[in-house]
Amino acid sequence: MNQKICVITGTRADYGLLRWVMQGINEDSDLNLQIIATGMHLSTEFGLTYKAIEADGFEITSKVKMLTSSDTSVGIAKSIGLGMIGFADALNELNPDLIVVLGDRFEIFAAAATALVARIPVAHLHGGETTEGAFDEAFRHSITKMSHLHFVAADEYKQRVIQLGEQPEHVFLVGGLGIDNIKRLKLLGRNALEADLGFKFGKKNLLITFHPVTLENSSAVNQMEALLSVLTQLEETQLIFTMPNADTEGRTLIKIVKQFASQHANAHAFTSLGQLRYLSCIAQVDGVVGNSSSGLTEVPSFKKGTINIGDRQRGRLQATSIINCKPTEKSIANAINTLYSPAFQVDLSQVRNPYGEGGASEKVVNTLKSINIKNIVKKSFHDLPNSVLGEK
User: In principle, which of 20, 27, 38, 261 could form an S-S bond with 269, CB 3.0–4.6 Å?
Assistant: First the structure.
């Protein structure tokens, strides 16, 4: 009997990373793909991005609605509770042999916790990473502890998952999943992209994605206002905004971006570009600005610069193309000057992406197909040797 693999996706971003894993499972005669769409995928204000999944030829097996209309801390906590209720019913109905989840968001935390109680094995992708400026950091490591198979993007992350007590034989170094999109999608050319987006690129072009900063002292609104104040001063620069996630203060940031775009002819805001248009934009712009993980994990493969604002991504591995700056007007302005400096632009040709050269999706599917998951739910804690812990 075919092994039922249930992939759970909650945002446009994690679907973009999971797509080729899903396709590999779907095309394998020994595996049976199930898909649960949840979170932002099912929200009108975030673009109903589940339709992008269906447009790629996938059949969504179940939908779990969990987002409330509030992005306060209370609203997010309630969404987690609603998610666990919905996942309990969905997983009971689908009865998968294994679920596949990616990353660190609260929707995925709810899914993993539900699967744990249901005694369903969990395969976690992109564990072991750190993002010290967001509560996603704690969600990610918690998901690791609720998971049984781990697919990581770099050796440093593999060691961190093992440090958390996971068995080394169940931790697989596969590289960054986002690079597979870059290698396998036929990106839109400049003219086709302009026609699709409805505007012309300028002499200078920047792609901006700024998400809420859930653990920083200054509010996301203050940081966004500092960024927009700098962007207002840029001349002959087309500004392409993708909207923030459904995190604390997310909806407030969306309103600010929409208002900014309505007041500046060179600013263009998109609820969701989708992976093809998003990656095509990266290929055409001078650099990426904001605090998205994509700026660190995918953009270096294009040999483009990333201005990484604040501490949201603090702790992640970084290529030399990353310009870190504080969330202040002065620091952001200096970072933009560095991005356009001749010396920095020359050095970009030598950039190497620390997340690998692609092929992660195929490695994940092959492992899922070959590994024996019988009795894998009951785990034992892997203790590190005393020498590793620094003890004498």
Answer: 261
**Mind listing the pLDDT tens digit for each residue in 49-105?**
899 999 999 999 999 999 887 778 898 899 999 999 999 999 999 999 999 999 899
Strands (E), 162-213: 171-173, 204-209
Pairing state between β 31-38 and 267-270: unpaired
Judged by DSSP in three states, 282 sits in helix
Distances (CA, A) of 47 to 12, 271, 274: 9, 6, 10
Alpha-carbon torsion angle 284, 289, 291, 297, nearest 10: 30
Cα 76–chain centre separation:
18
For residue range 155-203, list pLDDT tens digits in order. 999 999 999 999 999 999 999 999 999 999 999 999 999 999 999 999 9
Cα separation of 315 and 322, whole Å? 13
Alpha carbon distance 6, 61 (integer Å): 9
Q: Which residue has the tokens 């502890």?
A: 145
- At a CB cut-off of 8 Å and minimum separation 6, what does 83 contact? 38, 39, 64, 66, 106, 107, 110, 111, 114
On whether the CB atoms of residues 130 and 137 are closer than 8 A, the answer is yes
